[in-house]
From TrEMBL:
InterPro entries: CTDL_fold (IPR016187), SUMF_dom (IPR005532), SUMF_sf (IPR042095). Residues 51-234 form the Sulfatase-modifying factor enzyme-like domain. This is Formylglycine-generating sulfatase enzyme. It comes from the Bacteria. Pfam families: FGE-sulfatase. Signal peptide: none annotated.
Amino acid sequence: MDAALEQEAEVVNEYVTVPETTLPNGTVVPAFKVGKYITGRENDALAITATAAPWVEINFADAQSEAEKAGLKLITETQYLAIAHNIAQQAINWTSGIVGEGSIFQGIRDYSVDEAQPGTYESEDADERRWHELSTGERVFDFAGNCYTWIFDDVQGDENGIVAKAFAADSPSITTAPAPSYTKGMGWYPSAGCDLSSYALVRGGCWSSGDYAGVFLLNRDSPDYGNDDVGFRCTFK
């Protein structure tokens, strides 16, 4: 392929459809499309493919900016919860094969690698299975483990998606998980009253998180943070 054709070649980004979801607290999340993989970068351009390594070392504002340049949005807190809630309802996502028994698969988390991996990587440890299947039959990768994901907080957040108040007792951020923090593969999440104001939310965990990782893991970082264990995921309506 000559240089001109290479320039014309476009990355074909991969998305899955998330159906309209009603969270346990009654919040209705409209249907949307989400990147099948954590957002990567190929030839200095945004790429959502199995072969693109996650785009890490990017802060919260820059992640939003890169998504918007591509006509996309950073995943919101309610969108992320819709996916996690859907994942938790599918037997295939539990280690026992039965909803509620065993644990939800927690992804790449036991330091089998030392950096975020592209979607083509498969751990030798079957317990580090990195995909989860939605009710539609489509699969999403790395909603637990591999690298954290920046979250635009549309529950506790201000207009910029930064946390602006404490978690209420009925916040879907902390009431959607079907089991307590640190149990059944949920990952860690805070309690009511915890105030992360001025921080940006991150979810999922990374390659070294251990049992801290999970589809319901919820933590925070400075919006200016740009290290190698935090990436971002894109959506569109």
